[in-house]
Design brief:
13-stranded mixed sheet; eight-stranded mixed sheet
Length: 935
């Protein structure tokens, strides 16, 4: 923060760019379109207005309930993202190979395993609140109305349909719910218990069981009392200091004294301390883990590291009104789901008879996940907590009967189901899916007499989490928001900033209870003895999981970190230690509070800029390297390299236009050195196990073992092994000199030429899940450690809200390759840290309106026809009577664009035939190095 003097390629300072977001963005709003539509059979009119970025704003103020808005929302989403919705639906059903061929058979198998639970989604829908369920059906009906309009009008399906030779069948409520379940379960569906078992197995063979467990404890500790949280911060512990970086590098840093600020509200800080006890290592643990990771790799894209299947997360910051410069609560959200064309995310505004909500969500979700309503702003992040437990089963295969598994001295039948996977251009494939009472079988090894089954704490409870998202978007204060959020059984965090100045943080999910669990939850459990029942869980809905309303420090920072001081590490959260990436956000906020006395709206943008580029390793460990190099016998080349590291500003930032080109020499040298520093320090104590151990030691969310080694007197959690009895200096110097030798071989002896090419993020169509969701791409951009979208909200009597969603809100590509005007119109802004208004008020939407579409919710006037119009023009036009007596405005174009999104034709006016789409028409057969790259 502070007065940064970074200069963009155009010579504009970073601070000016960050403050200029609204002015830069509003220029894109080009026109307003008027629409007159007289309904003949229904009392509800749905109007879709698109602003200058193609964002749909759906209005149904006169509706008797909320469903008409979500009908329009489904229609608008399909206009922009129908091909993407089709692929998400196929992901849920496991029928991607039906259109993409045999390369996706394994993907479909993994996808089906992901949702193979005892309680089906259709059963969950039956037990839902009927008002909520009606919204899901309305959203499906809206998608179907768009499909119908394409088949009966002048529009064309997305090129993805044409190129692959199929058209979409109608959607039903299970399709819509399934798009949510398949993708959101993805964020909770990871475990590293098999990785821990692999490391422990190798260590036991080398050093014996007791010493192996000491080493394992240093990799995957249960509870580090010094780990930063998002609510009540631990007291009397070491907090890593603030390190100035970027434009502020060289200015004063240091530690802060913990301070309580503002009105402290309700704090819920329970414990789930479960670590220790029995465990069971699978036969050939390494092979089991590799099979588990291979299964996950088929579902997730861009997975370079064997042991770390999760490269996604999210960050957020909520600041209480008592500590902001305006007195208003502030919220920043940066959901991290990678970058693609089209984006995983989608923006919309929803305006019904009793609510207004605007923001961003995963495309196809009938609610807003990240945005604001009339009373507050909200966002969410992945909880990365202990929601999966693996069980090693003892199995018997039987040629003349069902296979069985042992549980407490009895043989139980393995539930097996054969399913057929249709394959485009090839023979259909048959797969056998299996379950025990522990859960889905993910690894079946009859030769060893073993299987691995997973108990998922959220299995069969997916729609509780759906309801949490849907209902929380209508909250009026932090308490209401929390009550709705706590229904969620997925491992998530929800955050709120209200117009009353209050903020809230809610960790969500169901987790094993310390009083009920007898085994070590960091490792696989013995399926012959143990199980998890409903009584064995702590549940957010029962207020047994941490949350905080108005935390004592006046703000809540989140980056997939620990929720409360006495809460144990979970499946992928073993990095909840003193060194955690969220500490950077905390340090930035504390520095601003200490230097300015308050936090401002633009400071939130500064946080996003900083964490996009800062090297989370160097701000913690560069000084230790430089200390080791002081007095070392360095050559002239090595001394020059050392000086480059010392002068570097901690930013991993290309020095060319738009942060491309080449990285600084200092970063290049540092990036080559740091992995060697870790290896030199730890490899002797983890000899044959260093491979799996390194995934814990070098985890990108934090490197807690190294932090504890370098700060033994300050950190709270002791190490079980003395890794560097004579100090780390020799190990660090050797790492540095080895890196210099490699760089000299690669770049030559002139250190000034040691510049790695800046990493680019290719905006291809492989996003989040391992299947294409579009065709073509929007190019590339510099890689930044940044949210897939960013949003900022200041809640006040006159709220301010901005966001950016690259490459653009539309994913439509015509059969001839023509893209929608909003296909990539936010990409350059995103690269330059510019933001557009997150439109909300009726007047603001009206002023920015580019095109308007009127939709009838379901005509039944005896003609069997519905009417729609889309007119991207401000020109006044005569009305024209349609075949069913409705009145629409017939548009004429004056250079306007974007009439229909997924196939819209400028100036399009049409009569749609066929009446409303009935439920039940579902076609189910249709469905990185250690350079911080996963942060």
């Amino acid at each position: 923060m502070g007065d940064n003097q970074w200069q963009s390629p155009g010579g504009v300072s970073r601070r000016n760019v960050l403050q200029a977001g609204v002015g830069l963005a509003t220029a894109a709003a080009v026109s307003e379109t008027t629409l007159a539509y007289e309904q003949t059979a229904q009392d509800t009119e749905v109007t879709i207005r698109r602003d200058g970025y193609g964002v749909p704003h759906i209005y149904a103020r006169d509706g008797e309930n909320r469903t008409p808005v979500f009908f329009g929302y489904g229609y608008a989403t399909a206009e922009d993202r129908l091909f993407q919705l089709e692929l998400y639906r196929r992901y849920y059903h496991g029928t991607v190979a039906e259109v993409f061929g045999r390369d996706f058979v394994e993907f479909d198998i993994a996808a089906r395993q992901n949702t193979f639970t005892e309680t089906s989604l259709s059963e969950q829908l039956e037990s839902m609140d009927q008002g909520n369920r009606a919204v899901i059906q309305a959203f499906a009906d809206g998608i179907n109305r768009y499909i119908e309009s394409v088949r009966n009008g002048d529009r064309e399906f997305h090129r993805g349909f044409v190129d692959n030779g199929f058209e979409p069948e109608p959607f039903d409520e299970e399709d819509v719910a399934g798009m949510y379940v398949a993708s959101m379960a993805y964020f909770s569906g990871f475990q590293l218990e098999t990785l821990g078992a692999t490391a422990l197995d190798l260590l036991t063979a080398e050093v014996g069981e007791e010493a192996a467990m000491d080493l394992f404890e240093d990799l995957n500790w249960g509870n580090d009392p010094g780990a930063p949280t998002s609510g009540v911060q631990p007291e009397g512990v070491y907090e890593p200091p603030y390190t100035p970086a970027g434009d502020d590098a060289g200015s004063g840093g240091g530690r802060f004294s913990p301070t309580e600020r503002g009105a402290t509200g309700r704090q819920n800080t329970p414990s789930n301390r479960v670590t220790g006890g029995d465990y069971r290592i699978p036969t050939n643990a390494a092979a089991v883990h590799e099979a588990e990771m291979e299964r996950i790799r088929t579902l997730a894209t861009g997975l370079v590291d064997l042991g770390l299947p999760l490269k996604y997360g999210s960050n957020a910051l909520a600041v209480q009104g008592d500590v902001t410069d305006s007195g208003d609560a502030l919220l920043m959200g940066g959901p991290q789901m990678d970058f693609s064309t089209p984006s995983v995310m989608y923006e919309a505004g929803l305006h019904g008879p009793d609510f207004d909500v605007a923001g961003i969500t995963v495309a196809g979700y009938p609610f807003i996940m990240f945005g604001r309503n009339n009373h507050g702003a909200f966002t969410s992040t992945a909880g990365i907590d202990n929601c999966i437990q693996t069980f090693v089963e003892s199995i018997q295969t039987n040629a003349e009967g069902p296979d069985t598994y042992e549980f407490r001295g009895e043989q139980r039948e393995v539930y097996a189901e054969e399913q057929t996977i249709p394959v485009a251009g090839g023979e259909d494939q048959t797969v056998t899916l299996r379950r025990t009472h522990h859960g889905v079988v993910t690894n079946w090894n009859p030769d060893a007499g073993e299987a691995v089954a997973q108990t998922k704490s959220y299995a069969g409870r997916d729609m509780n989490s759906w309801a949490a998202f849907y209902e929380s978007q209508f909250a009026e204060n932090a308490e209401e928001y929390g009550e709705a959020a706590r229904q969620c059984d997925y491992a998530l965090n929800f955050m709120w900033a209200g117009d009353d100045g209050d903020i809230g943080y809610f960790h969500l999910g169901r987790y094993p209870d310390a009083e009920s669990v007898e085994w070590d939850t960091r490792l696989p459990a013995d399926g012959t003895q143990y199980e998890l029942t409903d009584d064995d869980y702590l549940r957010a809905a029962d207020e047994e999981v941490p949350y905080s309303i108005n935390p004592p420090r006046g703000y809540s920072a989140q980056w997939n970190n620990k929720p409360a001081p006495d809460w144990n590490n979970g499946d992928l959260s073993y990095s909840w230690g003193t060194d955690h990436r969220v500490q950077r956000i905390i340090n930035l906020v504390e520095n601003e509070l200490e230097t300015s006395g308050s936090v401002g709206y633009d400071d939130l943008k500064d946080v996003v800029y900083d964490i996009s580029f800062v090297d989370l390793r160097s701000i913690r460990y560069r000084d230790a390297l430089l200390d080791a190099l002081d007095g070392a016998n360095l050559t002239d080349t090595q001394q020059a390299a050392r000086d480059a590291v010392a002068e570097w500003d901690h930013y991993r930032q290309g020095e060319g236009g738009e942060f491309t080109g080449q990285y600084p020499v200092g970063y290049t040298v540092w990036n080559a050195t740091f992995p060697k520093m870790l290896q030199n320090v730890f490899v002797d104590d983890f000899p044959g196990a260093y491979g799996p151990a390194s995934y814990f030691l070098t985890y990108r969310y934090g490197r807690g073992t190294m932090m504890r080694l370098l700060n033994p007197d300050e950190t709270t959690l002791d190490l079980g092994t003395d890794y560097a009895p004579d100090g780390v200096e020799t190990a660090f110097v050797d790492a540095f000199t080895a890196a210099c030798d490699e760089l000299a071989d690669q770049y030559g002896d002139d250190v000034s030429g040691w510049r790695a090419e800046a990493r680019l993020d290719e905006l291809d169509n492989l996003a989040l899940f391992g299947m294409p969701i579009g065709v073509g791409d929007a190019g590339d951009m510099p890689w930044v450690n940044r949210g897939t979208e960013n949003h900022f909200v200041r809640m006040s009597d006159d709220p301010t809200a901005e966001n950016i969603l690259p490459p653009g809100n539309s994913g439509y590509v015509a059969p001839d390759g023509t893209t929608n005007p909003h296909y990539d119109d936010q990409l350059e802004m995103f690269v330059n840290f510019e933001y557009k208004p997150l439109l909300f008020d009726d007047a603001a939407v009206e002023a920015a309106t580019e095109s308007t579409t009127g939709l009838e919710l379901g005509s039944d006037d005896g003609t069997g026809t519905d009417t729609a119009t889309s007119t991207p023009t401000p020109t006044a036009t005569p009305t024209q009577e349609t075949s069913d007596g409705g009145m629409v405005t017939e548009g004429t174009t004056d250079g306007g664009d974007d009439a229909g999104g997924d196939g819209g034709t400028p100036g399009f006016t049409a009569t749609l035939a066929g009446g409303s789409i009935l439920a039940g028409l579902l076609a189910k057969r249709l469905s990185d190095g250690d350079d911080e790259s996963a942060d």
